[in-house]
Amino acid sequence: MNSRIDRLRQAVAEQGLDAILISQPENRRYLSGFTGSAGYLLISARSAVLATDFRYTEQAQNQAPDFAVTRIEGEFAKWFPGLLASVGVERLGFEAGGVSFVFYRQLASTVPEARLVPTEGVVESLRAVKDEAELELIVRAVELSDDVFDAVSSAIRPGMTERQVAWEFERAMRDGGSETMPFNIIVASGPNAALPHHSPCDRAIREGEPIIVDMGARVGGYSSDLSRTICIGRPDGFFGTIYHLVLEAQRAAIAGIEGGMSGDEADAIARRVIADGGYGDHFGHGLGHGIGLAPHEHPRLGKGSADSLCDGMVFTIEPGIYVSGWGGVRIEDVAVLTGGKPRMLSRASKLE
Fold first, then answer.
1. What average pLDDT does this structure show over 281-310?
2. Phi, psi (rounded to 5 degrees) for 309
């Protein structure tokens, strides 16, 4: 963990801050190893403090050996000024994207606003590049979701509801060792497959229609993300047209993405293929997103994204086409950028 704290300290110093207050859960875990649901990190050039309540102090001492654990109780305004004084902070950074307005008012009541400095993406930018230990956990999560998809998808039958199928996927992943699901599983059949984030319902699956499955496992806190589009029975010709166009777009992106590209440039590779196929207006989301402790994190591969891709980043490549009234197709795999090119981690079967 020390290297992560050192890199954060360098970033904090570059912004002219004396310390930074970390409240965002994934950032807190990334820097400290602490997995409890409540607590704050206060990190300066010389100190690293983890403040949490009675429920978690022993856990924090075990999980965060690089931090001085401080037990807190009561309202934020009662204990934070003393903690801040003990560290000797003048200019304090806080995570602008991770605090509510209510919390900001509590913070401002204890620290003069002139000394409060909002920051954005400081820890998230560090998290975007995975180390070997992180990559190992992601690979394990990817392998689990791959295995579960291949096993459960082959057992789907007409008449099963979307909700039933989603439960079969979740149960198999939990039986296989997954922690809680990183996101709600999507099973979208027929016209529902035109909705990229459809919630499974009691609609019965029918032969010949598209079925989008979007699922992920979580291992050691790290997530996978996998989407496949399948069909039970014989699909119509339109299914084949759309499916192979999406597959072509994904293959083009895999072949064309390079280190140093922006997220916008990566997205444009797949988007161009789909547009040339006549369905540019039906690809409404980005090509992909980073994945790690959160199922969606830096970098963002999409229109307008200036995120620069570099080795060690792990992200999804997931083009899709959605046609209202008919359904849709999405194919999503996880890749790690290695030697300036994507190395695919996902291995779940696809239609060819």
1. 98
2. -85, 135
Q: What is the DSSP letter of 195?
A: S
Instruction: Return d(Cα 315, Cα 301) in angstroms, integer.
Output: 8
Amino acid at 251: R
CA distance 46 to 66: 12
293: tokens are 């402790």
User: Residue 161 CA to chain centroid, in angstroms?
Assistant: 27
Task: Give the per-residue pLDDT at 206.
Answer: 97
Nearest C-alpha neighbor of 40 from the set 63, 12, 15, 69: 69
Q: How far apart are CA 228 and CA 286, in angstroms?
A: 17
- Render pLDDT for 221-260 as a digit per residue (tens, 0 to 9): 999 999 999 999 999 899 999 999 999 999 999 999 999 9
Give me the pLDDT at residue 324, please.
Answer: 97
Estimate to the nearest angstrom the gap between the alpha carbon of 1 and the chain centroid: 21
129: left (phi over 0), alpha (psi -120 to 50) or beta: beta
Dist CA 290 CA 340 (whole Å): 16
Amino acid identity of residue 163, one-letter, is R
119, 121, 176, 198 from 162: Cα distances, Å: 42, 37, 21, 10
**How far apart are alpha carbons 315 and 262 in whole angstroms?**
13
Backbone Cα Rg of the chain = 23
In a 3-state reduction of DSSP, which class is residue 216?
Answer: coil
Q: What are the backbone angles phi and psi of residue 188, rounded to the nearest 5°? A: -125, 115
User: DSSP of 226-292, one letter per residue?
Assistant: EEEEEESSPPPHHHHHHHHHHHHHHHHHHHH--TT-BHHHHHHHHHHHHHHTT-GGG--S-SEEE-S
Tell me the pLDDT band of 1, cut-offs 50, 70 and 90.
Answer: low
List, in order, residues 6 or more apart from 216 with CB less than 8 Å away: 141, 145, 181, 182, 183, 223, 224, 225, 226, 295
